[in-house]
Amino acid sequence: MERNDAEPAKRGRGRPPSAEVRRRVLETAAAVLLENGISEVTFDKVARRAGVSRMTLYKWFRSPASLALAAFEDTYADSLRPESSGDLWADLRAHLREFAANLSEPRTAPMVAGLLGSAQHDPKLAEEISATYTRPRREGAVALLRAGRERGQLPAAVDAEALVDQLWGACYARLLLPEGKLDEAFADALVDNLRALADPG
């Protein structure tokens, strides 16, 4: 019988492909992270709920905290990569609003806080967070500010790296030390204050 090439080949019985298993593991870990926090993301619990062996998790992830980070990145993390439109102030306002909204979202806020807290006593996790979460976003923000500086929208002496710490760091401070709201109004105030200093006239 002639085979119809347009018809997808059927997968035989046996083990599911590793991509399918990894997807199930990440979704399970994300659910545990959301329900119980990072301290409850253990290899035992995730393996049991996902229906996989612990050895699979040991093979893929350095630690339960690394698994929690991968699950967060895969399922909940924003995809903010600031790009320049030519209007620094509009770009900053849009991106800081979105960043603040993502950090303060009820599902993601405790996850980010938990991951950052765990990183304080886990240097390898800190580097993983930097490599996969904070550094790519930081590089995009620095590029955005440098582009504005080159257009004359910021003084030539402005240190773009330090300015990222002041703006985006202020949002992290509101997340971890909630003495004020982390919302759109706060993001706007950060931009308005910077603009007033950069262009006092």
Automatic annotation (TrEMBL):
Q: Where is the HTH tetR-type domain?
A: 19-79
Q: According to the UniProt record, where is the region Disordered?
A: 1-21
Q: InterPro entries from the entry?
A: Homeodomain-like_sf, HTH-type_TetR-like_transc_reg, HTH_TetR, Tet_transcr_reg_TetR-rel_C_sf, TetR_C
For this protein, the DNA-binding region equals: 42-61
Composition bias of kind Basic and acidic residues appears in: 1-10
What keywords is this UniProt entry annotated with?
DNA-binding, Transcription, Transcription regulation
Q: Which GO terms describe its molecular function?
A: DNA-binding transcription factor activity; transcription cis-regulatory region binding
Name under which the protein is recorded: AcrR family transcriptional regulator
Organism ancestry: Bacteria, Bacillati, Actinomycetota, Actinomycetes, Pseudonocardiales
